[in-house]
Amino acid sequence: MKTIRNVLPESWSLVFSAAGSAYGVGLLGLWALPFLISAIIHDLQLNEAQAGLLMSAEFGFTMLASLLVAPFMGRAPRRTLALLGTVLAIAANLVSANVDSLYGLAAVRCVAGIGAGLALACGNAAVSSAKHPDRIAGHMNVLSVVLMIVVMLGYAKVMALYGLSGLYYAMAATMAVMLLAIPAMAQRAPVADAAPVSLGSGKGGGNILLSLPAICMMLAMFVFQARDTMGWAFVERIGTMVGYSGDELGVLLSFQSFVGLIGPLIAAMVGKRFGMSTPVILAILLTGATSLSYVLGEHSKTLYTAGVMTICVTYFYALSYLTGLAAALDREGRVVAAASSFLSLGLAVGPAISGGLISLGGFTLAAWGIGVTVVLTLLLVSVPLASIRREPAPLTPAVAL
To answer: What residue intervals traverse the membrane (predicted)?
Structure first.
């Protein structure tokens, strides 16, 4: 019974509302990215670099909105902001489906990014209010993988039938479903959790976002996500190069999403049983190896397939631990909310960087860029990990299984 109790979340309403807001709205553009990039290139007659820049503009505003509200997550009305952001993103997607001008579309996508950023910050901040933030993050990612399976299967068919406008309608419909879960989110951080833990800050809660562990955590999330998006943005196009048809890729991507359930489930069950450092470092190395496998697999269908099949397993395993680490730095949710904004910044620059590298030196040069980001992530994450290890023992029972 104790084992079952350890696996189950402490609050289903927290899991569903936070996952719906952060992943069903805030990061929906990430799950749909390969299809959006391909549809933009085909329907708008743009090249890889131009398509990457268009998506980067949207994700850039996601980052901006998330970062601006992050300092106020300890007292902000989270549920209200998440609902407002979701409605704004839905409206922007509906307008995007009917815009003919490229510049008009870019402007509307920026508005969609603002809405997604508000939802992303509020959903991730809610994790910090949990007694076991790392475990809640793991369960959230299980739901995120389920959503990704639906996206991979459904959006592939929508893109084939209705193109870019159909994808925007599908995103609006998906976000509308999330409106059913978000009202269950707590409006504000619980009073008991509002007292700043400020791991590694030593200066009080007010300056937690300016502490070295917090800054390194935010930069680590940025580089981690940039690495992922650098390859993920073009995974569909690489697949066609190695010989997969559109329908085959849809099945392959949906199946790897299903396999990806293993990643967050492992993170949710294992928790901190082996500490924090070893799982985090292992996660970063595994995600880097996965990205390199399918990016360098442009001439090898076997290598590409092996890389694709481990995308979700490694990504969500890593994201569960990184989110839990950020949440542990500050129980008011300011660090994890700010870190999620830098996650969005990684989304923003990833497609643009890889698009430029591919234009200059093909996928081989993009792979070198991915290798650099893996090393940088390891260096940056070492600071918050050291901060966690220096904290007094009283925090340990709150997160131990």
So the answer is: 12-41, 53-74, 81-99, 105-127, 139-160, 166-186, 207-226, 249-268, 280-297, 303-323, 335-353, 365-386
